[in-house]
Amino acid sequence: MTEHTTTPTSTPSAEIAPGDRPSVLRVLRDQRKTVILAAALMAGTYWVSGQLGEWRLAACIAGGIALGLVNHLATEYWLMKIITSGEQPSRNQMIASTMTRLAVLTAVAIGIALAFWPDGIGLLLGLALFRLIALAMTGIPLLKELKKP
């Protein structure tokens, strides 16, 4: 008997089973609401900051949102690979993978923020905004699941 598992942020119909093939397109399809919301937030950033004449700041905030989205999608892809492989990663493997990904994200974010200083601080703001989006997009489906009888 094969046990089907879903990732916390995927739709209920997007079941993943061991032996399935992970793909970037499937991750994008499963995360389409998050991608659309991130794109709308990036467009809104240009709309608001553009009217103030702060185009570089808008680009940095949008870049932070995009960087957060890439990190989110990479995490989802990694989780899909783990689930479809059927193996149980050790705690140390999970910690090492997460720490590596976050170290790269931090280095890139700080490097860009310093390169475009003072507007570059918007990149960190964009990362924080995306984290709020991701938290909401993962929390809402989980709360709906808890309410089911």
Supply the number of helical segments. 5
The averaged pLDDT comes out at: 82
**Terminal CA distance:** 25 Å
Task: Write down the overall geometry.
Answer: globular
Let me know the number of strands.
Answer: 0
The count of domains is 1
Low-confidence segments, given as residue ranges, are: 1-13
Backbone CA Rg: 17 Å
Q: N-to-C SSE series? A: HHHHH
Fraction in beta strands: under 5%
Q: Helix fraction? A: over 70%
Structural class: mainly alpha
Biggest sheet overview: none
Annotate the secondary structure layout:
Layout: H1 24-30, H2 32-51, H3 55-85, H4 91-115, H5 121-147
Structure description:
- The structure is a single chain.
- This protein is mainly α.
- It has one domain (24-136).
- The protein has 5 helices and no strands.
- Helix 3 crosses helix 5 (121-147).
- The radius of gyration is 17 Å and the shape is globular.
- Residues 1-13 have low confidence and may be disordered.
Kindly list the characteristics that best describe this protein:
mainly alpha; 149 residues; 0% strand; disordered N terminus; globular
Summarize the structure.
By secondary structure, the chain is mainly α. The chain has helices at 24-30, 32-51, 55-85, 91-115, 121-147. The chain contains 5 helices and no strands.
